[in-house]
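Cross-posted from the bioinformatics board.
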Amino acid sequence: MPDSTIYEVARLAGVSIATVSRTLRGTGPVSAATREKVLRAVEELRFTPSRLGVSLAEGRHAANGIVFPDLSGPYFGEVLLGYEEVAAELGRSVLILSTRDRAGVPETVKDLATRVDGLVVFGQTLPDALLTELIDSGLPMVMLAREAHPGTEAVRSENADAAEALTVHLIAHGHRAFALAGGHDEGDVSERWTAVARTLGEHGITAPRPVECPYTVEGGHEAGLELLKARPDVVMCADDQVALGVILAAEELGLSVPGDVAVTGWDDIMAARHARPALTTVRQPLRELGAAAARLLDELIAGAEPTATTRVLATDLVIRASCGAHQVHPPEEQ
Amino acid sequence: MPDSTIYEVARLAGVSIATVSRTLRGTGPVSAATREKVLRAVEELRFTPSRLGVSLAEGRHAANGIVFPDLSGPYFGEVLLGYEEVAAELGRSVLILSTRDRAGVPETVKDLATRVDGLVVFGQTLPDALLTELIDSGLPMVMLAREAHPGTEAVRSENADAAEALTVHLIAHGHRAFALAGGHDEGDVSERWTAVARTLGEHGITAPRPVECPYTVEGGHEAGLELLKARPDVVMCADDQVALGVILAAEELGLSVPGDVAVTGWDDIMAARHARPALTTVRQPLRELGAAAARLLDELIAGAEPTATTRVLATDLVIRASCGAHQVHPPEEQ
DNA sequence: ACGGGCAGTGGAAGCGCTTACAGCCCAGAG
DNA sequence: CTCTGGGCTGTAAGCGCTTCCACTGCCCGT
């Protein structure tokens, strides 16, 4: 049962396609009688305008894209959720593209770009050259979890202050031998490590070099086994998953957390709260991140000039047991 | 800088748009010299064919949709990842739609339906009437985590056998007073409860009515507070998040898990492994679920007749500490 | 009684592409 | 030296919709 077209509706209603279009979109005047005929025909034919036709004529897709590396952890999923929700409110569909471990990303992204009115890209996901090419093509873009590129808007969550606060907290607990798990030379994580290093320096402690590892439990586990040989007082981790892996490694090595070694994460994923020991971490407003990106993109699509400004969303330090602050909290609310 | 069209390329290359199209798609013969001219023009104009034009002419979108309730837990994210990966391999984009707590779902779904060649729908997400309407419209559809609807294909993971095995395991551990957290009258969960009830019956145990609750940690927490008043031996939960909530509730009530009460989950999400006690659960092949759905949908789109068959993917019983089997496992691999 | 204005409608030109079909030209066969 | 058959290319007809513009009556004011 092939979908009916506006022509069939027009014929059945005995009017022109122009009138059908006007009736359905509420643009231009249509007499009550005609409107009635058209609606009856639409009903009978179960007519739904072809998106392709509409988009081609309107010159817009009414769809947004988003590019992210992965969806495995809770991080991207939450952001995506916030993004999709706002996009839906704004009447736009959402096309997704995951790049992790995938070949042919540039081609796929370019294809995606032809299907949307604008694109949100997670910081470290796309090579700079590709980014520039997309921007130059005039596609509205917003960057997530990274500083704005010229010609874009950006939104990320606060890193430096929280990192400093966390570091100060750890120092106050008497920790001196720091280890950092999960390195990266750009984006959110590097900002945090920079702030950590500065803060440590201010307290006369030499900052260690972060140990590279994938942002997964397994990655943290391996990095942990390596790092813990040096018996640090505390391992600060790039994210919660890495931290969970480090805790696992500590258990394996017979080290108690936080007794022998403290561990901290970042993000405050669900598992952080249920881990034992519960994870000290920094809560990011993940959903708001996605929502903000969707709104910024919408403005850009609506014609706003890109200002290359980076919005910064506030984060919260969440102290739990894994850092050695033994205080017990009442059950937390969602 | 508006994108250039095939007309401009044709003009610049001094040929017709038909030749440009043939050159770019590799359909029909084109002389080497002409090809060269065209490619040079394409290069110079940075021409990319408009997806809209192509799709309208081809009569297909080269895009798939997927409808799911939420992306908060790890469950849907993993499935989505598997889906998107396979869809990308098949050269199709993915449009997503989340329905959780959202008004106007029918309209939004219908809009989505006009943008894709086929749709994957999670079981309990859409009302039956809407489902039927979509199927009747001729849209290829596959159901996820639910029995096939007439006119569709379906894929879900095994429930009954695993539920029975889990129940038998718990009975063997001496548990007799069962409680069930997280009810639902359709889809995966109800299949599990049915199998649990049957198995309990075969052992002379009367099955309790499942207590309804949202499939979240908070939902499990509340249900747990309620359920645990009756001091069951074991609480079987609809999924891992609910189980984590129940464990939280038990802690609050001063009950030790699994000492005073055993708890089991379902899904084997990441947090299940890192919870203390680690959660006994059933592992679902989430990514494979999504991948299988994508492949089935592709066949349907390619013209295969829907058989209303439900594929069943195998699951694994994962015994950890929370059910009272005190054996210690070596660290698990991903 | 007459002209202006406007509500209501249809015609037709795109939007950017694919592809059936027809035409042209040239080499090789007869 | 014709004739034929490819190889290559262009023309044009869609694909389904929006919207500008022109046109027809009809109501009203004067």
